[in-house]
Amino acid sequence: MVRQGAPSVPSLIICDQSGTELFDPGAAGRLEHRMALLAKAGDTVVVRERVPEFEQYLGDYLGIRDVSFVEAEPRDADSVARQLRVNPKLASLLGEALPDGTALTVQSYLTNGYTWHLAKALADCRQTPVSVAGPTSRASKHANDKLWFWSVVRTLTGKDSTPPTLYAFGPAAAAAKVARFARDFSSVVVKAPSSAGGRGNLRFQSAQLEKMRLTEIRDVIEQRLRAVGWRGTYPILIGVWESGITASPSAQMWLPKKDEGLPQILGLFEQRVEGSRGRFSGAQPAILPDDIAQEFLAEAAIIGALLQRIGYFGACSLDAVIRETPNRRSELHWVECNGRWSGVSIPLAAARRFRGDDTQNGLLIVQDIFPELKPIGTRALLDLLDELAFRSRASEEGIVIVSPPNRAADVSLNVMALAKTQPRAAEMVEELRRRLGLGAA
User: Fold this and answer.
1) Highest mean pLDDT among 23-37, 243-257, 401-415
2) Domain total in the chain
3) Does residue 352 sit within a domain?
């Protein structure tokens, strides 16, 4: 029997990010390993490529022990959940890793149809109950679709509660709508509706479009979208890249099943985004004016309740921007829903595990790429951290390695500083940057 929920039984944690649109296994690096921070004794974690140094770190420093790791096919772009179901070798490895005769929970980075099919196959094979700690396939698809989110939010909270946005159902319509926005706004954005992390965001300066014919705009849009892996599917989103942004808050939420409680807002975080695509590079607890914070939290609860009604269960986050108008009034505009675990919700869950509910102060997440760094492994990073490294049950503060750094040309750094105060968390991150030979942030 397969059901939705998260009972206290051993979990199969699938770290795969392939359900997001424009996913590229080669460019994903080692961020998938973040999900291992959710593991507990008796759980099984599936990654595309094992990193033994990081697995050792989890046990030695964070107390995450007695966890089994299974390696999927690293070069196969197919969903890992599907691989586990149809690949006999992987299915055998998984069967050996999972505990015998017990109920099981399947928890994926992004829950989709492949997750539910795997849960059904496991239930049939093991003859034990299997739960899925995530939304229904339909709810997951809707929640991660920026166009669906835009339409729903306007209905729930008013037509002015999002940036100006339009659908485009083909290349000619996309060009015409980009040109239309370019006449009235300084920047226009084109988005693949279900992409993540800014990968499918294309920003156009309106001044560059002024002298272009519609056919030229059409060609540029398609060329740039295809360059990031887009496969020609419509509709796409055409919107305004707003100016006057003063904050980029995100509501980190846990949504119980609709008959088990109201939406829970676990934290309000300010996201750091960089570059023309708005790439996520970190977060910290947000500080907003009281009136905006109240509006933000109230509307987040309304949106969360709708997601519950359509079958959403589990972690999700709602992203917005705060814009200052020419008359100095602050406007809240909703941008998207991340209907999955994320670069904020996973570290936040780990922080709550280590510190309880005290996570709205003294927490700083870094997720960035540093081409100037030489390749470095988990062990070498720990040597650099030295006394700064957080140790579960032994430290009041310190830096947690959220995912192993890439040992490649562009070194990724994904860490979380935990401290009693926000300035102290920032101070620890700056000290790590100094030890790595990086300049001030």
Assistant:
1) 243-257
2) 4
3) no
